[in-house]
C-alpha cells in the first residue's frame, strides 16, 4: 500500500483499515456515495466513492466496504477529518456525518499507535471506521511475485485467487474483531472472483 504524498523522513500518518456498514440483520444491500478524507477542511482523497449506477453490492452478512487507499503521510496540518455520505439504492439506508480531529489532539500519546474506531449513526444503519494514527511513519511499497513450479518446471498461472493480508507487529490480533477490522487487505479474491495476474 502506498503512503502518498511521502517524504524521506518519518512523518505523521493515518492508516484507515476498514469501513463497517451496519444495517438491519446484515441484509444484502447496494450502496453508493463517498467517504472523503479531509486535511484542514479540504478533500484530499476518497477511501470510498461510488456512483449510484455503479453501486457496491454487499452480500448478506458482508459488512465492510473495500478501501480505495487508506494510507497517507501528513505534515503541517491543523485538522484531520472524514466525511461520510452513503446511501443504498432502495433509499432505506442513509449515513451522513463527520469524524474530525484537531492536530493538537492527535498529538496526544493517547491517540497514537492505537486501534481506533469512530462511528456515524444514520437512518436505518451506521458506519464504523477503523483506523490508526502514527506519530512517525515511513513509506512501504509492496510488490508480490508468483513463482510456481509443477514437476520442476516454472508455471505461469492463468488466474489467481486467495488473500494477502498485512498486520502490525505492535498490535494485538488475538480477537476475531481485531483480525477482521484492523488488518490491511492487499488482495482478496475467491475462486469465483479470481483474476489474471500481470505479466509484469
TrEMBL record:
Lineage, top ranks: Eukaryota, Viridiplantae, Streptophyta, Embryophyta, Tracheophyta
Organism, scientific name: Trifolium pratense
Identification of the protein by name: DUF6598 domain-containing protein
Organism domain of life: Eukaryota
Record domain DUF6598: where: 14-194
Amino acid at each position: 500500500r502506498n503512503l502518498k504524498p511521502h517524504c524521506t523522513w518519518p512523518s505523521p500518518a493515518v492508516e484507515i483499515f476498514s469501513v463497517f456498514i451496519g444495517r438491519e440483520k446484515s441484509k444484502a444491500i447496494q450502496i453508493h456515495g463517498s467517504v472523503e478524507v479531509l486535511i484542514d477542511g479540504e478533500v484530499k482523497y476518497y477511501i470510498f466513492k461510488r456512483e449510484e449506477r455503479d453501486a457496491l453490492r454487499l452480500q448478506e452478512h458482508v459488512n465492510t466496504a473495500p478501501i480505495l487507499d487508506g494510507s497517507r503521510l501528513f505534515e503541517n496540518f491543523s485538522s484531520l477529518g472524514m466525511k461520510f455520505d452513503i446511501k443504498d439504492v432502495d433509499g432505506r439506508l442513509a449515513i451522513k456525518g463527520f469524524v474530525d480531529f484537531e492536530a493538537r489532539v492527535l498529538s496526544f500519546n493517547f491517540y497514537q499507535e492505537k486501534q481506533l474506531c469512530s462511528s456515524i449513526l444514520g437512518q436505518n444503519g451506521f458506519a464504523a471506521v477503523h483506523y490508526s494514527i502514527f506519530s512517525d511513519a515511513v513509506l512501504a511499497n509492496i510488490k508480490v511475485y508468483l513463482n510456481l513450479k509443477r514437476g520442476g518446471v516454472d508455471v505461469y498461472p492463468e488466474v489467481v485467487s486467495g488473500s494477502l493480508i498485512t498486520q502490525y507487529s505492535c498490535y494485538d490480533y488475538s480477537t476475531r474483531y481485531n483480525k477482521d477490522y484492523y488488518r490491511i487487505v492487499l488482495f482478496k479474491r475467491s475462486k469465483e472472483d479470481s483474476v489474471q495476474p500481470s505479466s509484469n
